Amino acid sequence: MTSRSAWLDVPRLKVRRFAEIAMAEAPELAEEILREIRREYPHLPLVLDESGEPMALVGIRRAIEVFVQHLETAEGRPSVPPGVFQEFGRGEGLNGRSLDSLQAIYRMGVRLAWRRFADIGQRVEIPPPAMYELVDAGYEYLDGLVDQSVRGYAEAAARQAGERLRLQRRLMELLLAERHRHGDPADALAERAARIGWPLPARVAVGVLLRPAREAVPPAVGQRVLLDMEYEQPRMVVPEPDAAGRPELLQRALTGWAGAIGPPVPLADAAKSLRWAEAAVRLMERGLLPAGEVLYCTEHTEALVLLQPEELIDDLALRCLAPLAHCGPTHGRRLAETLLAWLETRGGAPEVAARLGVHPQTVRYRLRQIRELWGAEIDDPDRRFELELVLRAQRLRGALGVTRG
Description:
alpha+beta, 6-stranded mixed sheet, rod-shaped
């Protein structure tokens, strides 16, 4: 009520009389409001307090009393009763309902209260302008009640979200464990998945992400994709990764992110998909795989196979490429590139020359040198396989030029 309000112009004797009648009728009005609410919303749960009285009835009655007391004093704004209306909002959140129905209930209560107040106003002969102002004050008061409920609703939603994340993490930990310690892992997975409403898929792919920024907002991958942002490099489990629309959804959701998604595997082998995704991310961080995007391991199989077992490949390279040890670095690299092109094409000098972009005569010269260096071993199928393996690995590392095919 403002200092120039019509309500403040009402004689204090009439205001006190109005408040006395309204306060006396508050219990009856509260019961009428609750009765109408129950009639319109028969499935609304009725929660009792410790004394056995419906909490809704207590809240409605207290809200009416506070509002009426404020009308008599007209000091500041009416203070919304804490607790009860916040609990109403919390109940809506915990039961999975929206706030729309709760707000509709509140508006119904205000209409019924206004009807009763209007009747009292006529009895006490309060002028219409003051009563119209009373309506505005009632809806302003309603906004405060809604704010309380929204706060409770938000608290319930946050608690539910936190609980779901906790259960989701436990499910992912079990799913990605290399070895299950005890019990039947299939039963444990089914139980944990059911608690968050996650249908167990036949196949999954596991992703490892690199944050674009420290406080990056989690990507909107959808409810079906399990996401754990607690790791330094967030993890995600993609169910049925080849399902219609799933690749497109991930592409949109992961825009701006980098990382790798492991190969699709049976659900029980999810840890294997995680290993390949982690391996791909390590290669990305070393600059051996493209950075700045989310890669699919199935599209970089050669790099993952040849660059992962570094010690074995390096040892094999020392043995297989020993004949080049006495060549200069530049000449040795050109011979290695020529040898790889020959092994890949299985062709003659013209085909190898076209692949390397040099003259066929240059290739013939280099191939003669290669035969001199390796001798009869160059015709052994096993030795040729080993040579191609180590030379492809070196090309992936950037030690050899990329030949044109």
